[in-house]
Design brief:
The structure is a homodimer of 458-residue chains.
Chain A (H helix, E strand, L loop, with lengths): L8 E2 L9 E3 L23 H4 L5 H8 L5 E3 L2 H10 L4 E3 L1 H7 L4 E6 L10 H13 L4 E6 L3 H13 L2 E7 H6 L1 H9 L3 E5 L5 H9 L7 H14 L3 E3 L6 H20 L6 E5 L4 H15 L6 E7 L4 H4 L1 E6 L8 E6 L21 H8 L4 E5 L1 H15 L5 H20 L4 E6 L7 H8 L10 H8 L8
Helix pairs in contact in A: 3-5, 5-6, 6-8, 9-10, 11-12, 15-16
Chain lengths: 458, 458
């Protein structure tokens, strides 16, 4: 019963909030491979990246030796608007599962963007502002990143141009309206505003667009418009750095109550949430100070870690962005149309890819109907309607808790609950109506995609 | 600068959370008038109400002498899932307005129901469960109450039947899906399931329904089904009692930091949020222990306090429910079709009506375009996308803060931010597109509605 002293929700005091981000790469023995210039296949230099990204963010992108990067005062203030995020003890879920496991989740959904994306959006917008830029461009698919960036830009008085995959733009008018509320301009992609957009529209008149195409438009707009740069919400090292605030807060909250994790679980698309959540714990594991399992959870329909190749690949479908060494399904891979929510990126953060390749992290893939079952069970006892993405982590946390029930082990399980599902009710509806299906790409499909990987001798 | 010691968000410790609700009526000098039996026009007795409401809730409804009612242990546990709600210091809004006023808001939107309605939903579901009932019925319009009740019933394993105004059912499929996620059955009203529904459909085939009609169906279903009772999310005394948790937490948080309110502001539809927020502060004012203004904010299109009559009226359009003495626009009054969000009830809680009549509380009405302007300005600096209902309070809080700017007064303004606007993006879209209009009922319209008030000599 001493156990019960741990509150349902652990909130740090403002004074306990992190003052520096943690750069896991500084402590990694095998560093992630560098980005390559798509034209020369040589490592990207700061100069190569200068026209696309902000100067300070380029520094962060390339720096794999500085362990702690101070969080600027203004970003710390912004974080206080919606952070600390609670570390929640899932007492109700434990009781429902009748498990001896202790389950915790770090809930990042208590802000209007509805997800953890805001942690990096404000940082990227801040450095753009510091550099005296007028605005930034980006792409968005499901819409969480676009919403987060709109909020950050609105707060700092920066212009924000979002290219939203046309099919999402039409199917998710509410996401679009949230971005407009924050003063962003939202353009369905492909559009007539860019050369690449016009080309695509000419070749495929009624296309619904793709994330790859939206990236290409956003990059073109940024590089061709005075005072603008391009920003991205996942995959990049800088994003992992900013998202480390999730893990740092989680660790501080756990240390406050003397809790030690046995398993840390997160959903993984490009890796922004998982990378941030595990960063400081992984640092300790690498140093031999912590014995803990890390599990990346991905959808069976887009299984980059569990079925992808560890190879250099393009970050975008348009093949204009740098090449990254990562677990990838091939830059042309698209999950089947029945796939719900995000986690649809073909590759994985190079940092997480390296950790996985080094055996420091595990990965599992799960079918989406099982994910929605877990989501609904969770919502009913914990009172939070989870995003489909986050529910991948819920599914595996429940699985691990049920294993503990069999073995009687009192393991401490921590998972990342990245956001809320308010804008995903169409997928929930499909699930309720029994119309949701699972999809697993065939080996032949993957082989065909792998065959198109660029040939890089590194 | 000592000021800055107050954190952006004040969270109480679990041990500081209220353990009893506060019943303001116990301390009121002029008690609210009793409910009347619609057939006899005599005060409703517990026996009269027994078939409709749960026994314990009837006790709470009729008890105007017990000041504190213990919150059952199980409800306290449930509250810990999503409470304490933060009391937020609106530093960013203050800076934007350049006001010397100190602005605080109690944010009730950090739970999946998206509003404060859950505070009473769990209490009502709990007492139904205690009584050994199988389930409860209710109606919902905008959907917040239905969602909250679904969550509470799912948690306790109670059946939940929601009659949702048909036009909302069709226009807000996502709200409906959230309720289904929590296992509620959601029926568009009018339906063929009840006698009153069938009658209405016969007379008006193709009708979009109304809240009054949905109430009548829910009451009929409850009274005609073994093991069921009817529950309601606003207006009633029991609801004010449960919602006092808002005010009690607010007061505890303010006392912790030695903050004294000068003005407390809340939006008012039936009064559930405002009544709960102000309860303990009003109690102190009545006892002469606090000098503070209270402002109820209502929409110009449904101005029950500012333009209504203080008279006995039916609580529902179907005239089957008890009569309540309240500020009312007449039970047949419906706000114009352009009215966005909730706050569309024709009357006002009898407690708040009495306080207003006694001059203990002020009321103002505001046009909806101004409300959405305030909502958007707030969202951009405070990072929370407010519900249209809550934004009525934001509008008046900003107005009062700007008055302080003129006079240089450092007043402390507290307002209730009842919920989030994720399911109201259609209204935001109208606003962004310049298609939102204001509506003010004419005197003639109101007079026509007043003419139909029941004749009661009390």
């Amino acid at each position: 019963m001493a156990e019960k002293k741990i509150p349902y929700k652990i909130y740090l005091e403002e004074s306990e909030m992190p003052k520096a981000w943690y750069n896991l790469r500084a402590d990694m023995i095998n560093k992630p491979a560098p980005l390559l210039n798509p034209k020369t296949l040589e490592p990207m230099t700061a100069e190569d990246l200068a026209g696309v990204f902000c100067d300070e963010l380029i520094k962060q992108e390339l720096d794999d030796t500085t362990a702690y990067v101070e969080i600027p005062e203004e970003i710390q203030s912004f974080y206080k608007m919606y952070r600390p995020a609670p570390l929640v003890r899932a007492y109700c879920l434990e009781e429902k599962l009748q498990t001896p496991a202790k389950i915790y989740y770090k809930f990042e959904g208590n802000n209007t963007s509805g997800s953890h994306k805001l942690n990096s959006a404000i940082a990227q917008a801040y450095y753009a502002k510091q550099q005296g830029l007028k605005g930034v461009t980006t792409e968005t698919g499901a819409g969480q990143w676009g919403t987060a960036l709109s909020m950050a830009c609105s707060y700092l008085g920066l212009d924000c141009k979002v290219y939203m995959v046309k099919v999402s733009y039409e199917q998710k008018p509410f996401r679009r309206e949230v971005m407009r509320t924050y003063g962003a301009s939202v353009t369905p992609s492909p559009s007539m505003e860019t050369e690449v957009g016009r080309k695509i529209l000419e070749a495929h008149p009624g296309t619904g667009g793709s994330l790859g195409c939206a990236i290409s438009e956003a990059v073109e707009k940024a590089t061709k418009t005075e005072g603008y740069r391009y920003v991205l919400g996942s995959v990049l090292n800088q994003v992992m750095l900013h998202q480390s605030v999730i893990g740092l807060e989680t660790m501080a909250a756990m240390e406050k109550y003397d809790i030690k994790p046995d398993i840390i679980i997160g959903c993984a698309g490009g890796g922004s949430n998982l990378g941030g959540l595990i960063a400081p714990f992984m640092g300790k594991k690498i140093k031999g100070e912590l014995d803990c399992r890390f599990i990346a959870v991905e959808p069976q329909s887009c299984p980059s870690l569990t079925r992808g190749k560890y190879a250099y690949d393009y970050c975008d479908t348009g093949m204009v962005c740098p090449l990254s060494k990562m677990y990838t399904l091939g830059s042309g891979f698209m999950p089947a149309a029945n796939h719900a929510g995000g986690l649809r990126y073909h590759g994985m953060s190079s940092t997480l890819s390296q950790l996985y390749d080094d055996g420091l992290m595990e990965a599992v893939s799960v079918p989406q109907t099982a994910v929605f079952e877990a989501a609904e069970a969770f919502a009913r006892v914990e009172g939070i309607l989870p995003a489909p993405e986050s529910s991948h982590a819920i599914k595996v946390a429940i699985d691990e808790a049920l294993k503990c029930k069999e073995t009687g082990e009192e393991k401490t399980i921590v998972f990342g609950l990245t956001g809320t599902g308010y804008f995903d009710m169409m997928s929930y509806e499909k699930f309720h109506d029994g119309k949701m299906t699972d999809y697993v790409p065939t080996d032949a499909e993957l082989e065909a995609s792998f065959a198109k990987l660029p040939k890089v001798e590194k």
